[in-house]
Amino acid sequence: MKARKTRWIKCEPGERCFRPQCNSSKQLDGVVMSIDEFEAIRLSHLEGLTQEQVSKKMKVHRSTISRILESAHKKIADALVNIKAIKIEGGCCKIVGEKKA
């Protein structure tokens, strides 16, 4: 299997878990969204960038961004429709401006 290329992100999510308040169940199903999916959604939908622009910012191919966005959209839709929590974690990312060791 091909190694995953590092995705560069600018915005690390502060709060990493979002859950419905209407469901008081302590054991709530959830979906896990990677940090690169979070960043692609932020750049594409909040910042209004095209997939080509997002791919340049994250330093990956445009087709990779398309797959990342498709995966993120499915997870968000699943969480909203099926009343699930969304947890943001993991992914093959480096934060822009991060000091090198």
Gist of the model:
With 101 residues, this protein is an alpha/beta fold.
Written description of the protein model:
This protein has one domain (7-94): Arc Repressor Mutant, subunit A (Orthogonal Bundle). It is an alpha/beta fold. 40% of the residues lie in helices and 16% in strands. Strands 2-4-3 form a three-stranded mixed sheet. Strands 1-5 form a two-stranded parallel sheet. The protein has helices spanning 35-46, 51-58, 62-81, and strands at residues 7-9, 17-18, 30-33, 85-88, 93-95. The mean pLDDT is 81. The two termini are 28 Å apart. α1 crosses α3 and α2 packs across α3 (62-81). The protein is built from three helices and five strands, in the order βββαααββ.
Q: Supply the helix-strand structural class.
A: alpha/beta
Nearest-integer average pLDDT: 81
CATH top-level class: Mainly Alpha
Question: What is the total number of structural domains?
Answer: 1
Strand order of the largest sheet: 2-4-3
Summarize the helix and strand pattern as letters.
EEEHHHEE
Globally, the shape reads: elongated
Low-confidence stretches: none
Give Rg in angstroms: 15 Å
- DSSP helix fraction: 25-40%
Strand content range: 15-25%
CATH architecture: Orthogonal Bundle
